[in-house]
Specification:
Number of strands: 15
Mean pLDDT: 94
Number of helices: 10
Oligomer: single chain
Low-confidence stretches: 7-23
Distance between the termini: 56 Å
Structural class: alpha/beta
């Protein structure tokens, strides 16, 4: 009897193996310029997807028995982008700000069209309302949604709720990350506090307990609090300073001084391990900060959007547009792709994402680079001109085509 059962088990395993390899859905991207910063690939190659995994990246992969072949000649093939700063806790609490409110957006409508397959919600929810956020948005989205948990229990319900020190609970915040949702919650957010370093210190306390990074939106202090003290005393290596190139000198100390010089301690902080995130947003990106920073060699570690309804119709628009801005300031396409794929994956300790290694999830983007004369806006409606602009042609999430601008993957008539 045991011999018969073993024979049946062997038969079913063998049949499954043969069936998978004969009938598995396959997709082959041919002749694209592959940029994969983790694996140091920067060359024209082919990429093979089987089911929901990347199975091979190589030169001249045969097309025989491949179900779908996509010609990516003269285009760039990259890992699916990771936008490390968004707000996607969309809801109908009309009097609230970002938590379960209309200022947040549903992710799928704004991600795939710019090559994004993973987003990190930047503290829209706290420990009190994260379960609602998960049920309402995260569990429904095709986009992979990870999140930073706000140190304020109610999250970004309103600016006034964000001042409630009594609702800043490091223990409950850390417990929700470590005990309930460790697969989704990747860090902690402190934002919009009008006081001293209390919010930051409580967030860092929670970060130590949960062993995750803290992202700080450090503004709205009048007079301004010292960012040198923030970088050197309050934050740890691996913690994140967002809205790096914001200009609002009355409430937020800037990284570039009034003589257009990057402050020396900013370079020191970056060497110390402080992560500088763009977090463009609707009011947090200025050419007068970004241009001299790039010219003097102070580059962001991560390029992100701060997506919400107040940013997407202004100078920000989407992640491909923000990446194009940095290309207009002199970064290469390789530079910007690295800062929107492998770099954020490392910052949030999710190294399984942001690359094209065989065996990894088949999250892929294909971009064309349009050439011409383009105008890029900052949040003050000031224009910088550029000659190249990224445009997402196709996005694949988990092996499925979820965005196809010009029908690259479609069957031809």
């Amino acid at each position: 009897m045991n011999y018969i059962n073993q024979s049946k088990s062997f038969f079913f395993i063998f049949f499954y193996f043969i069936s998978f390899h004969l009938f598995a859905q396959t997709l082959l991207i041919k002749n694209g310029h592959v940029i994969d910063p983790k694996n140091k690939i920067d060359a024209v190659m082919d990429l093979l997807i089987t089911q929901d995994k990347i199975t091979r990246v190589a030169v001249n992969i045969p097309t025989k028995d491949i179900k779908t072949v996509i010609d990516a000649t003269d285009k760039y093939v990259t890992p699916g982008l990771i936008d490390m700063h968004v707000h996607v806790f969309a809801g109908n609490n009309l009097d609230d700000y970002i938590a379960n409110a209309p200022t947040s957006v549903m992710p799928d409508g704004y991600t795939f069209r710019s090559g994004i397959t993973t987003v990190v919600d930047a503290g829209s929810s706290g420990w009190r309302n994260f379960p609602l956020f998960k049920a309402q948005t995260i569990d429904k989205a095709q986009t992979r949604v990870l999140a930073l948990l706000n140190i304020v229990g109610h999250g970004m319900k309103s600016r006034y709720f964000e001042q409630d020190v009594a609702d800043m609970n490091p223990n409950m915040t850390a417990l929700m990350i470590t005990k309930q949702y460790p697969e989704i919650l990747v860090g902690i957010k402190a934002a919009h506090y009008w006081g001293d370093f209390t919010m930051v210190d409580k967030a860092v306390e929670a970060g130590k307990q949960a062993n995750v990074p803290v992202m700080v939106d450090f503004g709205e202090h009048e007079p301004t609090n010292s960012i040198e003290s923030l970088f050197m005393t309050h934050l740890r290596p691996g913690d994140i300073f967002t809205h790096t190139y914001s200009y609002g000198p009355k409430v937020r100390e800037t990284v570039v001084d009034e003589n257009n010089k990057v402050k020396p301690f900013v370079f020191t902080a970056q060497k110390r391990g402080i992560v500088f995130d763009v977090g463009h947003g609707g009011g947090a990106f200025s050419w007068r900060q970004a241009v001299p920073s790039i010219q003097q060699g102070f580059l962001p570690n991560v390029i992100s959007t701060d997506l919400h309804t107040q940013s997407m119709n202004g100078g920000m628009k989407d992640l491909s547009n923000v990446l194009s801005k940095f290309m207009a300031m002199g970064l290469t396409i390789q530079d910007v792709i690295a800062r929107a794929t492998w770099a954020p994956a490392q910052v949030i300790h999710r190294e399984q994402y942001g690359h094209l290694s065989p065996g990894s999830d088949a999250d892929v983007a294909i971009f064309s680079v349009r050439e011409g004369k383009f105008g890029f806006l900052d949040v003050r409606n000031t224009k910088l001109e550029g000659t190249k602009k990224l445009e997402c042609e196709l996005t694949i999430r988990g092996g499925k085509v979820v965005w196809d601008l010009n029908g690259m993957a479609a069957v031809k008539e």
